[in-house]
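Researcher: Let's try something more involved. This one mixes different molecule types, so please make sure each is placed in the same coordinate frame as the others.
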Amino acid sequence: MKLLPKNKKALIKAAMGQIESDLLIKNIQLVNVITGEIYPANVYVHEGFIAHVEEGELKEETPLAKKIIDGKGSYLIPAFIDTHVHIESSMMTPRNFAKAIIPKGTTTIVTDPHEIANVFGVRGFRYMYDSSENLPMRQLLDIPSCVPSLPGLENNGATITAKEVEELAPLPRVIGLAEVMDYIGVINGDDRMLDIIDVAEKHGLYLQGHAPYLSGRGLSAYLCGGPNTCHESTTPGEALEKLRKGMFVDARNSSIARNVKEIWEGVKEVKFFDHFSFCTDDREADDILNDGHINDVVRYGIEQGMDPVTAIKSGTLNSARESHIENLGAIAPGYAADMIILDDLKTLIPKQVFFGGTLVAENDQLLVDIPDKAYPLEQENSVHIGDLKEEDFLIKVATKEKEVEVNILSYPLLDQPITTLESEILPVVDGHLSLAGRSDLQFVAVVNRYEDHSNIGLGIVKNFGSHCGALASTVSHDSHNLTIVYENPKDALLAALELKKSHGGMSAVKDGEVLHTLALPLAGLMSLKGAEELAIDSAKMKEANRALGLTIKNPLLRIVTLALPVIPDVKMSDLGLVDVLEKKLIPILKEK
Amino acid sequence: MKLLPKNKKALIKAAMGQIESDLLIKNIQLVNVITGEIYPANVYVHEGFIAHVEEGELKEETPLAKKIIDGKGSYLIPAFIDTHVHIESSMMTPRNFAKAIIPKGTTTIVTDPHEIANVFGVRGFRYMYDSSENLPMRQLLDIPSCVPSLPGLENNGATITAKEVEELAPLPRVIGLAEVMDYIGVINGDDRMLDIIDVAEKHGLYLQGHAPYLSGRGLSAYLCGGPNTCHESTTPGEALEKLRKGMFVDARNSSIARNVKEIWEGVKEVKFFDHFSFCTDDREADDILNDGHINDVVRYGIEQGMDPVTAIKSGTLNSARESHIENLGAIAPGYAADMIILDDLKTLIPKQVFFGGTLVAENDQLLVDIPDKAYPLEQENSVHIGDLKEEDFLIKVATKEKEVEVNILSYPLLDQPITTLESEILPVVDGHLSLAGRSDLQFVAVVNRYEDHSNIGLGIVKNFGSHCGALASTVSHDSHNLTIVYENPKDALLAALELKKSHGGMSAVKDGEVLHTLALPLAGLMSLKGAEELAIDSAKMKEANRALGLTIKNPLLRIVTLALPVIPDVKMSDLGLVDVLEKKLIPILKEK
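Model: All components are placed in one shared frame. Result:
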């Protein structure tokens, strides 16, 4: 896509010096990410675009600009671009997300509204689109490609097919097809994915990829299928192979996954970095407030040994190219005037942030008003769970045996979402399974929360981390059903009812008492609160989780992938235990 | 644009190794222009695309490929791309041009059929499009943007407006708007150019630029207007400024203009070269046969000190990116399988050339058949000149004076097309100007050769180079009228009649005798002969030119810019002497 000025003739006149420009930033050290040079310059901006760059000391006096800012020798760099982000993971609305990240110097994000699309489908997508109109930043959207992520093995709230892609592709701020997660589908040549890719290609959308651990022929096949970016590299060798095979490697530091170090380790010896960029993927409000956004990821890259200009280019120009945005990510005539003034190319703390030539933030403070707006979807309940009873949370077994061998999912590590399939011999009490005396085991229920379904998938998890009470969440990738990990049905029911009442969110219950509920009434995923307020609420929720035994750094992130049936080896869904590798359901009772 | 496989499922299967690939090139040193590395690899190709790249020694044995080529440790590089070329300047048809350049390793050219469009308009464009279908190379077309180049000051055969751009843009091999030469129009905000640019942008075409000597605010304004490439840099400072301002700098070595040395001198100290590429612009048959094509330009860049891998990237991947072609110019899965096997990264002499995985040339010999095809336009006469008489070539002056002061155009240098406006006092004999005894002066006639016009512009040129006889050409940029430089009307008429008979071309006449005529019957610009035969014919024509006194290296190129009213300071057109800078006609008699 190309960003077009509204009045090209006026822009040309401003460039020629025939009319005053809107803005002149003089006396700065320009970081030119096209040549890799840094030199003194003065930058003219008119109606959102760079009109002219004058090198050296400012010579001419008239006509200048309506507003003149003296950079006093500070650096001027392009504003940052996030190549892949799920706004929903911040638990904020697009408007509140904008308020949080603009002061950090990110003025363009390429979002994948995949989470809300699993809840509300096209309506959810359109909410993210509509509510991000006319912001003092650029929110570009990719169309979610894998909704649901695993058809047939889980039930979510909506389906996106080639037809929906066709419907959404013409929207002006839609630029790509979002992470094609079903890489198995692609490399198997499945029609579902290839049809969606075909429509996206027909509309000129770029294809964002997602290929964790894929290598060798599988990676080649995926690239032949079309998607050619990946933000899922975690090992040095994986990153290098992807780069060599022409993939755009998005080095990610999210709230969950910090992969920049390993990726850089893998690629640092190559000569060209045109295909290297940065993304945040999922970053929570408090991490944004405390650490920053893309500036934090780029800074981390520099700490790992990246040359600052190469790192800045990777967070700006490379990102624009990867996302097929023509005139963004550099400071040159005809480019969108998104820029940052800062003093240190290593810490990357913005002094002033410009979006389209407008000063939008200064010293970490937003300077422009983003008025609150109400959208019907923000008030719509998406948590449709029926009249649950305690006994719904019991795993009944039709047997006369006193004990049975059951299939369970087990976590080898507390901070990794990878699981293994194991079995345990458990007692049967009053016709249902008992976990008495086994603090390493908890029950899991995945309660479908959508109108067309009323499934509850029940199972048992080992080494989840919590030991007592109940922990519930409607943030539960990717179908976002109500997922509850619990010691006893009573607490489970209370947690479920709590989230029914709040229209979604997270809740922790212990001994019949609600420790805390983080209400996320928008799609059961997002709060309407701003970053600061949300961070406080979120901190309380983490504390409540810790009270149940979950002591990892960010306990909120444990439950949210328990029902994500694309992470090996086994996961839960509303249909029960899922064998991720074999793509099939596993019965609770182990076959003899 | 993205190059799409016909059968993506088959390509994916080949990548997976589930079916045999069409081709395996094993045991090569892969020049990876994405990372800048060189390492041992094996490359699988299926149905025109790279299916898989296996690093190191070939491990697996089955299923392999229908055809296996052992690279024996030679280098494998992407095939070359020419970012800007006028096929007409080779005087060959698109099909014969293909035959000449494929053995040199160029498999993709971005052409500007600007010359034939000045003669035949859209019909000429469509001829170039149709006759380049289904070749064993990729001829992509940009739509000429400046036809005629200077409306109102010359008459050509056709006009291209926004309407014609709209008509041609949807053609599959049309990718851009060709060199926007009227940079004055752009930076003045003229509607003609901005309307054409708007239509091109609406259709997603990229905008090829042309901005000789443009700098400072003018260059910024031009970039704000949209075009962001330039192959017209001639000085080091110009090239550096363009690169810094985000322009794609095409370093050109044509038959006429060799600018690579100066351009490299200007940019060699920068850090990133993503915006640096190569082009030939205008290259004649014998230069292609003797020196090569883009491989020759890249080789020259390396001779100037460029790192070979950076230079190869500039002639492949960078060119594709500049031209908005997504999956071309690198050897990676999903990319078009255009490749060259060669032994020396400095001389760049192809051993084997592959287009879409098909071996199309080996050791400078074309291996595939490009059948001759006939097109109606090839037989259509475009030289419509009426019944000329000797006296048409006399410059009549209505005066009783014995001498008058006249405006003339003068060449300061023999090998440069730049001119100055001068005046001379000349005798009037029998009512017309006489040049008797002035071997530095010659008459010029520009005879309109199009059906709607019958103008003859007459003038006088100083230091053209020829001293006697008549030299005529229907290759006469950009309107391609019949231009004749002559000592006496008799020889001028003979030369004109000679070209009327041949339906265009070049002719040299002396003392009532035709020294040689190079027939160019296709649009008066191109021969139907192949490169070898044409080179012989062309050599004879050069010899004949030398007999008239034109002793420069390539005398054919002198006359062809005499009527090009975009090169300062003055030029001729069928309307008379043109002031290029002031954009107005100049009377022959100097005002007193």
